[in-house]
Design brief:
Length: 171
């Protein structure tokens, strides 16, 4: 028993340290987050860039293709979703509700999704059930910063991938 106690203590300390390192949000207050965005569903592929920035009304999220047209532009108010613009196929109420829930999990409160597994480089979360089931895989780099977010909706065969864009300028 005495030999096992240090191992248990070390594992507990490691888990506490992992939770402290991996709790930062994707949007840092006062900074704009830029990510490559890929959306795959039923053989269709859409790629572009997602920009999220904090505003007084809540995070504003803009997704645009690399050729310029805006895919969607949302403002996540604390109790509602304001649709500034959105392409026609995504204007359905169920699609908007699904996107709102996913964006709230990754941008506002990660605890809206239940933690399933956490390791030093990976965090798996799940929310919803049935057709609204979402699986979030948050991948961290060696420094403990978020590198990639994968969102899967297995029942509707939708997969979204967000990869951080590296800033080459010296801001």
């Amino acid at each position: 028993m005495a030999r096992r106690l240090p191992k248990i203590l070390m594992v507990s300390i490691f888990c506490l340290a992992a939770n402290a390192v991996f709790s930062q949000p994707i949007i840092v207050p006062g900074k704009t987050a830029r990510h490559n965005l890929q959306i795959d569903t039923r053989g269709n592929h859409l790629s572009g860039m997602m920009i999220a920035r904090p505003t007084a009304a809540g995070p504003r999220v803009l997704a645009t293709s690399y050729f310029g047209p805006t895919i969607f532009d949302f403002t996540l108010a604390p109790d509602s979703l304001k649709v500034n613009s959105c392409v026609e196929p995504m204007r359905r109420p169920k699609v908007l509700a699904l996107l709102e829930r996913d964006l709230r999990v990754i941008l506002v409160d990660r605890n809206r999704a239940k933690l399933k597994k956490q390791t030093p480089g990976l965090e798996l979360r799940k929310s919803g059930h049935g057709f609204s089931k979402s699986v979030f895989s948050i991948i961290y780099n060696a420094e403990g910063n978020i590198d990639q977010v994968l969102i899967k909706h297995p029942w509707i065969r939708l997969r979204m991938t967000l990869e951080e864009l590296k800033n080459d300028s010296k801001d």
